[in-house]
Design goal:
Arc Repressor Mutant, subunit A, single chain, 2 domains, Beta-Lactamase, 247 residues, 8 strands, six-stranded antiparallel β-sheet
Length: 247
């Protein structure tokens, strides 16, 4: 069984190419051609693999698609992110939020609080502006241009003295976020709160949410932000992979 799965994994890893020949599979796995054919036959019978008649190359079959769709149908964003959200809360010591886009706003769909820290005012189901929250900017950085226009058209009013209210400055900030992989709300939405967030992508590599860590500025210092950024980005990436993203 394990060797048969190795055959399937090799073909999967070359799914974007023309497939793999019998010789290539055998050489890569260190097996004889006859052994590869024997291991592949049940995978061909169940449709997990297919083999084209012209070249004899192995590719993923329709059964692999059905299996993937069944997997994706069995998970949702909250379920996929739950473990990472709790891990982040324990490691970062702040409040973790999971949000989804609803331009020009974001919606909080889950929240994991550190019981020893000051509680954040956010509530599951509540909304906040995209342009001045870390989760909002994390998603906006990868959303289409028309969403950016929708956010700007809705207005960029001042929330705190540090809120970005100029569309040009906001666009520059979104470029920085794409470059480093995470966003920062440095007292832009609440005067004494810093937040670090990263985007979550689905199996189509489309941004569907964001994961964040928030805390008072006395705990989430500027130096701490630089530590949290890569950690939050890594957690969001693991959630994305669970959802089938290939980024």
């Amino acid at each position: 069984m394990r060797r048969a799965l190795a055959v399937l994994e090799q073909v999967r890893d070359h799914a974007a190419a023309e497939g793999l020949s019998l010789t290539e599979l055998a050489d890569t796995l260190g097996l004889s051609k006859s052994t590869v054919l024997r291991l592949a036959q049940p995978l061909l019978d169940t449709g997990l693999l297919s083999r084209d008649r012209r070249h004899g190359h192995f590719r993923l079959g329709p059964g692999a698609l059905a299996l993937g769709q069944a997997y994706l149908a069995g998970i949702d964003l909250r379920t996929a992110a739950a473990e990472e959200a709790h891990r982040l809360m324990r490691e970062a010591g702040g409040t973790v939020h999971l949000c989804v886009p609803d331009a020009p706003h974001i919606v909080y769909i889950d929240k994991v609080e550190n019981e020893t820290a000051v509680r954040m005012a956010s509530r599951i189901g509540s909304r906040a502006p995209m342009y001045c929250t870390a989760v909002g900017k994390a998603m906006l950085a990868w959303l289409p241009e028309d969403v950016f226009a929708q956010v700007v058209d809705a207005g960029l009013p001042t929330v705190t003295t540090r809120t970005l209210t100029d569309p040009g400055l906001l666009r520059t900030e979104l470029a920085r976020i794409r470059n480093r992989g995470y966003s920062v709300d440095d007292r832009e939405n609440e005067p004494e709160v810093r937040c670090v967030a990263a985007p979550i992508f689905d199996h189509n590599d489309v941004v569907v949410g964001a994961l964040s860590v928030s805390g008072l500025t006395s705990r989430v210092t500027a130096a701490r932000v630089r530590e949290l950024g890569p950690a939050v980005a890594a957690a969001a990436l693991r959630v994305s992979r669970t959802l089938g993203a290939t980024r």
